[in-house]
């Protein structure tokens, strides 16, 4: 073989890492679960109605009151809820949730690219995507905790709406997928290394 053919053979070997079927299946499941968490978090942030306390509905974007004579009346001016610091606190929770979604989008993109584009740096992209999912977990958890701490006097366990539980589940899935992604990356053999028989 000529020197050019040897170099081409080496480049081709670097571009085509070998993964077992089981490893590929686990990585695919992590990507699917991360995508599900991203969808749940996006829906929860966009809807934003997280807490029902009596006849009042507290959300990330609106504050609603309902009475028996008329339908729900929603206001964007959160200061009319008469909860100290509600506008600032909800703005913080909303921002943290939105940043969590953005970080999860980039993390999910890196996870998918590392699986589709088989190259020498695919494992690094996978690790970086998992770290971004961990960042999403931290941001979304901080948003949830700030919302609950802000409205601690109004909070009851049955008062949380389905959208709040969607965000809670998404945050939990971000955590599980990030740790699973980092773990599978650490226990599997690097794709570029030759396998021993």
Rg, nearest Å: 23 Å
The biggest sheet, with number of strands, parallel, antiparallel or mixed sense and barrel status, is: 4 strands, antiparallel
**Helical proportion?**
55-70%
- Spell the H/E element sequence: HHEEEEHHH
Percent of residues in beta strands: 5-15%
CA-based shape: elongated
Discrete helix count: 5
Number of strands: 4
What's the overall average pLDDT, rounded?
83
Q: How far from one another are the termini? A: 26 Å
Question: What structural class do helix, strand and pairing data support?
Answer: alpha+beta
Low-confidence stretches: none
As laid out across the biggest beta sheet, the strand order is 1-2-3-4
Task: Name the features.
alpha+beta; 64% helix; 197 residues; single chain; 4-stranded antiparallel sheet; elongated
Show the helix and strand layout.
Elements: H1 3-15, H2 21-47, E1 49-53, E2 56-59, E3 63-65, E4 73-75, H3 86-116, H4 122-150, H5 162-187
Antiparallel strand pairs: 1-2, 2-3, 3-4
Question: In words, what does this structure look like?
Answer:
64% of the residues lie in helices and 8% in strands. With 197 residues, it is α+β, with helices and mostly antiparallel strands. A four-stranded antiparallel sheet has the order 1-2-3-4. The two termini are 26 Å apart. The model has no long low-confidence stretch (mean pLDDT 83).
């Amino acid at each position: 073989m000529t020197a050019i053919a040897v170099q081409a053979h080496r480049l081709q070997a670097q571009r085509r890492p070998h993964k077992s079927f089981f490893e590929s299946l686990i990585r695919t499941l992590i990507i699917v679960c991360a995508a599900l968490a991203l969808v749940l978090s996006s829906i929860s942030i966009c809807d934003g109605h997280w807490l029902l306390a009596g006849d009042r509905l507290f959300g990330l974007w609106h504050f609603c009151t309902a009475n028996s004579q008329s339908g729900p009346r929603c206001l964007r001016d959160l200061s009319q809820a008469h909860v100290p610091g509600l506008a600032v606190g909800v703005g913080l929770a909303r921002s943290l949730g939105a940043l969590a979604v953005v970080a999860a989008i980039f993390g999910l993109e890196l996870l998918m690219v590392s699986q589709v584009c088989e190259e020498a740096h695919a494992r690094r992209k996978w690790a970086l995507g998992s770290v971004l999912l961990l960042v999403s977990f931290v941001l979304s958890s901080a948003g949830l905790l700030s919302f609950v701490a802000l409205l601690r006097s109004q909070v009851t366990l049955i008062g949380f709406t389905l959208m709040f539980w969607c965000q809670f589940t998404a945050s939990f899935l971000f955590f599980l997928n990030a740790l699973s992604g980092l773990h599978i990356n650490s226990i599997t053999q690097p794709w570029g290394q030759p396998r021993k028989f």
